[in-house]
Amino acid sequence: MTEKFIRNEQYNYISKQVAAMRQSTKPHLTPAVRNSIIALSADRILSCIPGLTAEQERLLDFTPYKTIEEYDHGLSRLAAYRLPFPEVTDPQLKKLFPKRKKLKLPDLTEFDLEQTTYLGWNDSRSNRKYLLYILDGRLEGLECSYSPNILHNTCSICHQQGPVTLVTTVTKERKANNPDYYRTIGNFICTDSIACNRAITSTDYLERLFKEALHR
């Protein structure tokens, strides 16, 4: 059996492309339109994961399917190849946030690690949000502040409309001529990180956020 090779956000992206392929089964579409939809979605699926082997490409080939049931079965079959987010221990969390002596630890059993691109949880007592992400192969953590005001807007991470809050974090950037200088980064992010992970299809914003905040 091929080893697991699909990250959560990639699986979500593939799911969207398969959903488009499912639409091609509608009887009112002409063959030309149907073929165009299938070809475009198939190309996007293969392009979202670099360095695929021949066997992995075969697993991601949805072009032979003709019915909604076949598309759904093919997508369900891919679930076995999802890469889980690494398991995290309480000592690791405390080490990532050493300044927080009363760190609120998340209930890690609530997270399905195969449906997780990043770990995020809220501490409503202090209006803090904690984010964990694998950056350049290393587990990194960000401590953020969030506004208690919940809005219906677009999340910067998953780009979906839903309940979001303004989340800010202070960067580690420093200027030699001003040691007291600091810069904050603020954006709207889903209040529910589990729901956000189910919708995320790209890590572009997460990568940029962590690199800017950690001054990489």
What does this structure look like?
By secondary structure, the chain is α+β, with helices and mostly antiparallel strands. 35% of the residues lie in helices and 20% in strands. It contains seven helices and six strands. Strands 1, 2, 3, 4, 5 and 6 form a six-stranded antiparallel sheet that branches. A hairpin with a 4-residue loop joins strand 1 and strand 2. Helix 1 runs antiparallel to helix 2 and helix 1 packs antiparallel against helix 4. The longest helix is centred in the first third of the chain and has 17 residues. The model has no long low-confidence stretch (mean pLDDT 92).
Quick description:
The protein has 216 residues and is α+β, with helices and mostly antiparallel strands.
Brief descriptors of the model:
216 residues, alpha+beta, elongated
Ordered list of secondary-structure elements with their pairings:
Blueprint: H1 8-23, H2 31-47, H3 54-59, H4 68-78, H5 90-96, E1 119-123, E2 128-135, E3 138-146, E4 151-154, E5 161-170, E6 184-190, H6 193-199, H7 204-214
Antiparallel strand pairs: 1-2, 2-3, 3-5, 4-5, 5-6
Helix pairs in contact: 1-2, 1-4
The strand count comes to: 6
Q: Which term fits the overall shape?
A: elongated
Largest sheet: 6 strands, antiparallel
Mean pLDDT: 92
| Element-by-element helix/strand order | HHHHHEEEEEEHH
Distance between the termini: 38 Å
Based on secondary structure, the structural category is: alpha+beta
